[in-house]
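P.,

For your records, the input lines for the assembly:
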Amino acid sequence: MRQLFIILFLSMMSISLVSEERPDIRQLIHDMDILYRSKTSSGLMEMKIETPNYKRTMRMQMWTEGLEKTFVVIESPKKDSGTASLRNDKEMWNFFPKSNKVMKIPPSMMMGSWMGSDFTNDDLVKQSTMLDDYTHSYLEPPKGDNDHYYIQLVPKKDTATVWGKIVIQLTKKSRMPVTQVYFNEKGKKVRIMTFSQIKMMGGKLFPTVMEIRPLTKKNRKTVITYISLEFDKKLPKNTFSLRNLRKKR
Amino acid sequence: MLWKMAFRNIFRQKRRSLFTALSMIIGFVMLSVTMALSEGGYGNIIKMFTKDHTGHVQIHHKEYLERPGLYRSLVYTKKIEKIITENREIKHAVPRVFSGGLAFIDEKTTGARIVGIQPAQEAKATTILNKVEKGEYLSDHWNPDKKAEVLLSHGMASILKAKVGSELVLISQGADGSIANDLFTVTGIFAKDFDTMDRMNIYMHINKAQEFLVLNNKIHEIALFLDDYLDSTKVAKQLKKNLAGVESTLAVDTWMDVEQTFYRSMEADKSGSWIMNLIIILIVGIGVLNTVLMVILERTREYGILLALGSRPYMLIGMIVVETFILSIISSIIGALLSLLAIWPLKVYGITYPEPVSIGGITIESINGAYVPIAFWMPIVVVISTAVIVSLIPAFKAAHTDPVKAMRTF
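Structure tokens returned:
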């Protein structure tokens, strides 16, 4: 009798495990998309680039509005200060104050490196959103990992991207991303993005350090650290204008 | 005795000897001129090609040639400079910096090859100064506070619709990972004729290029110019040995390795022209054969008498061969002198092609002869050997004929 009870209990346990309520996948992905953006955001971050040939650290200011608008200005090093990137809807421009040149980034360059880092232009300005440009599905977590959700993103047909798929690992508890693994079209792992240092900043909890490591190139990585970030503040009206991009700072 | 008789024979029938000699001389000159044109022509093309920009020997980072890159650079140290200046055969050594970039003038934009050069040295070593058609050449002094000057190739200028004085924006990747961008002034534009090799080039002062690309004191290439391009392999070998102890990351290559496409197309062209040369050798050989054969057969009666008088057959063979040999040597000397005269106008004026021909990116408008050794030793070998070999056949025949029969022939 007691044995039967135990068996019954265990089987109920396992049923409850399998049928465990998974959060709405679209909501999760949307939260990921706006993790660092909210409605509007403005903040300061530091980008550290390490390659076999050079190391450099940039400090930059960033403003975003929704998912469509992004504006980044490099503050230091001095040589690059004033260099800026603007994305408004489907278009993106870079501005070089030294030569007073605004350069439009063609769609074919969206997957190109941003200012020599391992982040692509697309990573920075979110030309493609995870929510709308990818189809999503839950993956079975590897054995023994009960703390994380694994979500697979496959780009839709007309999404301009170089990734074959992306696998995101999130914590179940806080729903914070831990890693994002990018695969190329042949299914080979090409880069891995790691999130860490979850902190409260601007009234929101999020990982303040993002590290990108390309797996195709040796000894390269780029680390972004948020120094400050504020959300949902009203931004000046012309923040995302070409004129503002051109402004000498 | 043999030589004496041979000499006497030559001068006995002056007109006959003259005609034989004439056929050999004409053959000699013909072959010599052809050789001078083809061999000397290639030599000229190589000289022009290497002088254009390549130089004869180049020093790079060892991985540069295989896959050029911004970081495959070297530092032009005093030690390297010393090794180069100690080599007597090297006339000029010019450092260079290369990179790619985007060039803008107003709304026009195109990809460009950025070339950093030391203006004065480059002008001394190469033909770059002659290429400037509009505006001026780069000044040797670079002032960091002023907008830097650039020199555009003709193709570049026409794509960008550049004029002398236009403002040009260049965007490229700096060696520190930054986006290199700066303003430049177009100071000069190349003439169209010199555009095959450097159609996409933008030239600037090497120090400006180093600053622009954040290369510090690094460069990508040292091009060495020698007195004689034939020494390239030798000098490269020497340098390789001398540099091995100083820098292990360097590679020394000759122009044949650096410009493989050019070299190969040259070699292919050359082997093609050798077929032509062989045909001419054949024609000359047959011409000599014909005359020598006729001359000897004509004298069958004479040989018959000699045999009847008791000459040994081998004496007869020897006499005929020596006779032809002496005649061919005299002809060769005269032929060589005439060739010297004949090649001279070809060397100075050359033969102009109706349409300029391009080999490996160098446009050739005319082919010029040159006094190359092969234009002399080759005809000498051909004329003398064919004459002697050819004379052997009738000589044997004459020596073994029945004197009575021989005397009856006229």
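Two observations worth noting. Residues 49 and 55 of chain A are 6 Å apart (CA to CA). The radius of gyration of chain A is 21 Å.

Regards
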